[in-house]
Amino acid sequence: MRVLGVDPGLTRCGIGVVEGAAGRPLRMTAVGVVRTTADADIAERLVLIERGMDEWLDTYRPEVVAVERVFSQHNVSTVMGTAQASAVAMLCAARRGLPVALHTPSEVKAAVTGTGRAGKAQVGAMVTRLLRLDAPPRPADAADALALAICHIWRAPALNRLQQAHAAVANGPRPGGRPATAGRKPGGTPSANPGTPSGTPGSPKGRTP
After folding, report:
1. pLDDT digits (tens, 9 = 90+) for 100-109
2. Residue 179 — very low, low, confident or very high, per pLDDT cuts 50/70/90?
3. CB neighbour list of residue 115: distance below 8 Å, 6 or more residues apart
4. Separation between Cα atoms, residue 24 and residue 68, nearest integer Å
5. In the UniProt entry, which residues are flagged as the active site (predicted)?
6. Annotated catalytic residue 141
7. The CATH number of the domain where 73 resides is what?
8. Residues in contact with 201: Cβ distance below 8 Å, sequence separation at least 6, in sequence order
9. From the candidates 19, 44, 63, 141, which is the catalytic residue?
10. Beta-carbon neighbour count of residue 99 at 10 Å?
11. Does residue 193 form part of some domain?
């Protein structure tokens, strides 16, 4: 599986590509940052991020795009910019028909370091170790993007099993052993008494005993 991880941000949007599978060694394909200047118009900055994302998607052709789920109770202006950059990344992936997975920061930290409260230094150190790099990627946004890709590769099998289980429950039999479509006429209209003929049991239809 080849996953492109995105750590969204207006000034620095971290991007990293990782290949591998759960339980097997992982390999970093590429890592970098799409940068914009803080004094530029917001619309222009989003266009630059879009162009950068398109270049990465066209060059490395990932199977999945993993994006950090934006969540914060503080600094609303920063969160707005991060959310806008996140939306651009998802839009670029969707235009290519690529699935998009959202992972919270705590999920990523827990997957990579074993604790959802790990600091950036811990995440960078574990990314370096897991991908067998010579040094932690810089800036930290790049390391976070790789961590997102690693997180998705490791969580994908469990997520797939969960989705299959939900689908089985939704399409399985109802209580009493009847399938979800039992007792319905063509067109989806339930019959009055499924499986019971009209008239008095044991008597010819419409005849008075």
Report:
1. 999 999 999 9
2. low
3. 109
4. 23
5. 7, 68, 141
6. yes
7. 3.30.420.10
8. none
9. 141
10. 11
11. no
Q: Which of 50, 54, 63, 68 is catalytic?
A: 68
Query: Is 141 flagged in the annotation as binding?
Result: yes
Q: Which domain holds residue 145?
A: 2-160
Q: Work out how many domains the chain is built from and give that number.
A: 1
Can 144 be counted among the known catalytic residues?
no
134 is in an annotated binding site: no
Three-state SS at 75: coil
Domain assignment present for residue 152? The answer is: yes
pTM, two decimals, is 0.76
CB atoms within 10 A of CB 135: 7
Residue 195 falls inside a structural domain: no
152 touches 103 (CB < 8 A):
yes
144 labeled binding residue: no
Using one digit for the tens of pLDDT, what is the confidence trace for 158-169? 655 555 665 678
* CB-facing half-sphere around the CA of 156: CA atoms within 13 A: 22
DSSP assignment of 35-73 = E--TTS-HHHHHHHHHHHHHHHHHHH--SEEEEEPP--S
The set of residues, in sequence order, having a beta carbon less than 8 Å from that of 32 and lying 6+ positions away, is 14, 15, 16, 56, 142
Burial class (CB in 10 A: 0-12, 13-18, 19+), 92: buried
Distance CA 110, CA 158 (A): 15
Question: CA-CA distances (angstroms) from residue 1 to 7, 27, 89, 146?
Answer: 19, 11, 19, 14
19 is a catalytic site residue: no
